[in-house]
Amino acid sequence: MTDTTDTQVPAAGEGSASDQPEAPRAESGADGDRAARKVRKVREGTVVSNAMDKTVVVAVVDRVRHAKYNKFVLRTKKLYAHDETNDAGVGDKVRVMETRPLSKNKRWRITDILERAK
To answer: pTM for the full model?
Structure first.
């Protein structure tokens, strides 16, 4: 009283699309390069210095929960960001995006100036 149903086993080298996830393929062209890249980090902060040429220092404030006391603590991180047009001034709120290393300390670039200083 055994049920004799035919089950097909794929041969070596063959497999259905649902068995194994297909690796992303690198496409040629500018759009293909962008699709293969990982998502870049984006932060918002305040410009605290613009004394350098094409570089600003951006202070990014994060609220993190203290591990022991469970109180929120403000942590400030200063980022060196590339400002191609020297447009950002001290006190401006800006959005920065991660980029390739541009110098010893500079790994971010300004994408938007959200609010000008008053």
So the answer is: 0.67
